[in-house]
Amino acid sequence: MRGWAIDFLSQPWPLVTFVLLAAIALAVHRRVARGRGWPAWPTLGLLLSLAVVLTLTLPPAPHMLIGVPGIDGVDQCFRSLSDTGGLWHAVVATTERGERVGNILMFVPLTFFGLLVSRRPVLVAGAGVLLSAAIEVAQSVMHLGRECVGYDWVNNAIGAVLGVVLGILAIRVSSR
């Protein structure tokens, strides 16, 4: 995992993607906050967290040929996302700890800030789980050298729920 991460971050695409998305987040966060009735700083945290998630999941994988987008990998993707044995293994397995921890931690800030702005834990957790599934499907469609795998989805979902739990705790502590 560490070698892959270093290779990935040494490419130009992650930096370009993050700078572009972070600039958009900075430019629109106050407008989004006002429009939704949310506080400005947690809204910025939410948008920057989304920028990080998209930066880590959508640019091309290192040293891979980029293919033509198409739906030919979607059936395998849906099989991976619905394989209950494989999904359960993702919950209980301890192999690939670095990748697992990275996939979990990636979604924690996103749903943490999502809860701070919306105060709707079930909606935020559900949105985090659905966003992760959508990213997996997008990876299979975009053909950027990435795979749609159920264990990434499970670990992202664990991170999404963990972010909501931490958000609930932060709200309770700050309200005392």
TrEMBL record:
Residue ranges annotated for the VanZ-like domain, each copy included: 92-169
Transmembrane regions listed in the UniProt entry: 12-28, 40-58, 101-117, 122-141, 153-171
Superkingdom as given in the UniProt entry: Bacteria
Family annotation (InterPro entries): VanZ-like
Keywords: Membrane, Transmembrane, Transmembrane helix
Coiled coil: none
Protein name (database record): VanZ family protein
